[in-house]
Amino acid sequence: MQPTRSTHAALHTSRSVKPVVVGSSAAMREIRSVIRRAAPTNASVLIRGETGTGKELVARAFHAESHRAAGPFVAVNCAAIPEHLLESELFGHEKGAFTGTTGRRTGRFERANGGTLFLDEIGDMSAPLQAKILRALQEREIERVGGSAPVRVNLRVLAATHRDLEAAITAGEFRSDLFYRLAVVEIELPPLRNRGADLDELIDHLVALFARQHGRPVTSLAEPFRARLHAHDWPGNVRELGNAIERAVVMSKDGVLRQGELPKTLAALPASETVACRFPTLAEAEREHIRKALELAGGNRSQAARLLGIERNTLARKMKKYGLLHP
């Protein structure tokens, strides 16, 4: 069973607890710095990253640090709602807008009034809805489905995606004007496999959180347990790590977390065997390829981008993602 999106949000925050962005790596320090600087403004923010990296957590941190913190935080996963229902979910509808509707229903935009609306997986939205989102951002007003009167809204919009939106724009799948409206501030969340320096902090944070949440005190972590966590590539990122640690905390018999209490997919192989057989991930291969291109180009980003067959801004974003602070 895969951990759910709501489970992932619970790893770090609840409605009554300030979100915690864990990690002392350079990438995570920079993310916290961007949050501190941009949160007090009304600027739109685009949060990028693979599934499970903590995009909603970062959105909640923006909200908590903003002058809208006392207002609602409303999240909607645009990829999880069927296309024919998403417009009504976002903008609401009037009585009689559809067969069987018996009254007016407010949408997520209105429910987020005075606060923050988080549009997760914005890259999966259809072109007609993209146009309506753009209009809502520009005009600060919406129209309910089946209605004609504009409804003013006062909110901040944060968006997130795991997709390459620049590529989607080139392919005609995403509006460039909406992209520029959303991406006033951008944050790239690195995958967990590239956050080795943060892993122990995350493990300790999540162990303490779930021990408290389930009332199961943890006295120590056996060394093979921690070694097994370090050996894994974490394709599901922090969400997968949280799921594994929560299971271990719940299944622990004596307060000591052991490798055998991890999910079967993790407990099956000894850590030493996994490390010996480890194959480089796609991200690791991409990072090394970019590093070599920069080296071959003598640090010239334009030339390196040409060698790689990508745009210069895409190269810059990937360099930031992989911590390649090349001059």
Task: Tell me the CATH topology of the largest domain.
Answer: Rossmann fold
Number of domains: 3
Strand order of the largest sheet: 2-3-6-1-7
Poorly predicted runs are 1-16, 271-277
Provide the residue-averaged pLDDT: 86
Radius of gyration: 22 Å
Say how many strands there are: 9
Query: What is the CATH first-level class name of the largest domain?
Result: Alpha Beta
Instruction: Summarize the biggest pleated sheet.
Output: 5 strands, parallel
User: How much helicity do the residues have?
Assistant: 40-55%
CATH homologous superfamily label of the largest domain? P-loop containing nucleotide triphosphate hydrolases
Strand content: 5-15%
The number of helices is 16
Oligomer status: single chain
Named at the architecture level, the CATH assignment of the largest domain is: 3-Layer(aba) Sandwich
Distance between the first and last residues' Cα: 45 Å
